[in-house]
Amino acid sequence: MRLSIITVIKSPAEGVEKTYDSVLREFGDCEDVEYLIKEWDATAEWTESIQSDENAHGLTIRKVHGNDSGVFDAMNQSIAAAKGKWVVFLNAGDWLANGFGAKCLEFVKEHASCDFIYCDGVTVDAEDGREFLRKAPEALQLSHFLHHAPVLHPCLIVKRSYLEQHLFDLNYDLAADYALMVELVASGQKGRHLPVVAAFILSGGLSEQRRVRGKRQALRSLLHNAPSLKFKVLSSAAYLRFLCRHLLIVYGIRSFGPLRRWAKSRSGGQPSGTYL
Asked: CATH number for the domain including 139?
């Protein structure tokens, strides 16, 4: 099995049908790809509807059952159940880009010696559908993590053999995916950039809803993997800059309607469908 795509479904799982359809569209006729769905009791009704699709398109579709303590625990359980040489996690509600499937399979075949592969992504504003291209750096370095995650986690493809030895750290309940990426780079694992959009990611996830806590966990992962005292200082300074901006936005810009509308108009982005 070449690739395992994993979706963890937690209630409310809005838009999961779009996620599922995009996987069928890109990998539906691929016999060496599997799609694992880790379901939660509240979503069992929806997953019952996919029973008849199992193996119907060449793609192997399997469910992963078991109690879990949260999203990252569910992802760890899915890693244990996966059979693919490579693993990618696709959030419920997000979707794969058109044409990504064939490019992905060709790239992983050509770069079998890598430990991880990363792609570009597009974040989508859940309110107005504006799209923001998040182009990943050609050569990923630890310094890229000082401002934000340089790779969106649905755009990260990792060797299963590595993940089995380095499961998501449940001490980072909001930033375990970020911590994994930091560890991959800090430990010198071999990565390659596939310069195509892999997925569209809706804004408004858990880490965004609890942004300060998520950023604090991200800082902790950077300090833990820092190669020098200087990098620790830079990481702490970047966190303080974020905190100042966050407080200004939340208690200043967002509380004043005209200023909020002006800031939104200056934030850029492209109309929905630009990067299809």
From this structure: 3.90.550.10
